[in-house]
Structure prediction request, 427 residues.
Amino acid sequence: MKYIGQRIKELRKANLLTQQELADGIVTRGYISQIEKYSIRPSYDILEKLAKRLNCKVEDFFEEPTNEDLILVNWKKDIHNAEEKVESGKIEQAEKIIDKLTYDKTTEDEDNYDYGLLLWIKGTISDKKRNWKEAEDYFKRSIKIFSNGDHVKEHIRSLDSLANVYLKLEQTRTALNMLNEAYNLLLSHQIGGLLKISLLVSLGITHGKLGEYHSSIRILKEALQINQATHTNFKSGHIFMTLGICHRRLQEWKDSEKSYQLALKFFDIFEDISNKAGTYTNLGVLYRYLNEYDKSIEHLLNAVDLFKKIDQIEKILNVKFELAYSLFLNNELEETVTYCKQILTENHTLSKGKALLLLGDVEAKRKNHSAALAHYKAAEILFKDSDSIDYLHKALSKIADIYYILEDYEKAAHYYNQIKLFHDEHY
Prediction:
C-alpha cells in the first residue's frame, strides 16, 4: 500500500483525468485527494472501481511508481519521518523506515540536505547499536554536507552526535574539540532551545570526564535553567546523573544523592531502563563511600536486574563487580566469591582481571596468602594483555605486599621496584 496514492495519481494523469473526473460516480474529489496524499487507504471495492475508470488492473496500483520526481518526494518524506522518530527517541521505528527506503540516492552532493539527514539518522542508529566506528563515519559525512550549506542547526547536531561517539571511544579531548566548535557556531548564530541544552549536557559530561567537576556543574546548571525557563525536561535525567557523579567526586555526598534520586525520577518517567540501571549503580557506589553497605547492595542488585532486561553484558559485569566489592566490604565473603566466579565465566578480560583481584583480596582476608598470590598473578597477566594501566599497578602492589607478608623479601623488593619503574613510566 506504500505507493498506492502515488500510483493512482500517475495513472490518473496518464489518462488525462482530473481528480473530479476520476471521482465522479465513485467517491468525492476530496476523497481522491486524500488517497493521493496518503491520508486514507481506500477499500478494495473502491480500488476496483477506480481501476475500471483508469483502464487498468487493481494490481497496477501496487506497482512501484515510475515517476522519478514523485519517488524523490517520497524518499525525502520518509527521511524526515525517520528524523522525527530519532528526535523522539524511537530509534527502532526510524530504522524500520530507513530499511524500507527504495530510492537509490547515494551521491553526496554538497547541497544534498536530505542525504545529510539520512547519514545523521544512520549514524544515530549505529550509535544505538554500539557500532561506534560506523557511527563515526556516518556523522563525519553528514558534517561534511551540512558544513557546506546554510544548515547550522543540523551541523551543530551532527557535531554533538560525533562528540558523544568520541566520548564512548574514550577520546575525550577530541570530543571536547568537536563540542567547542559546535558551541561557537551556536553562539555566533544565537541558537537556543533544545539544541543548546543538548550541547550543554554533552559539554558538562565531557568536562566531568576530564576531572573539571566545578566547570561541569556550572554548565549543567545552565542547561537546567533553560529547561526551567522553557518548561521542558529535556535530558533532565542525564543532567542530574552527571551532577550526581560530579558532586560525588567532590565529596558533596548529599548533593550527589539528591541528584541521583532526581535522575532516577526522570529516567523512570521516560522508561529509560539503561540509564535508570546506571543511576542505581552510581547510587550503589555512593552508598559504599558512605559505608552504608546494605543500601549499596540493594541498589546494585536493582541495577543488575535492570541491565539483564536489556541484555547489556558489559554493564552487567561491571555492576556485578561493584556488587561483589560492596559485599566484600560488608564481610559477606561467600557471596563475594559467588559473583566473582560468575564474572569469570564471561569472555571479558578487564572484568575477569578485576574479579581475580577481588578474589585475591578475599583469600588475603582469610589469611590464605598463597591462594591470594595466585589470584593476583592471574590478574596481572590479564591486565597486561588488556593494557589496563591502573589495574596493573594495583595488581603489582598487591603481589609485592603478599610477598612481604610471606617474608619473601627478595621477591617483594623486586615487585616494589617494578612498581616504582611502572609509576615513573606511566604517571
In short: The domain at 67-191 is CATH 1.25.40.10 (Serine Threonine Protein Phosphatase 5, Tetratricopeptide repeat). The chain has a mean pLDDT of 93. The two ends are 64 Å apart (CA to CA). Residues 52 and 156 are 52 Å apart (CA to CA).
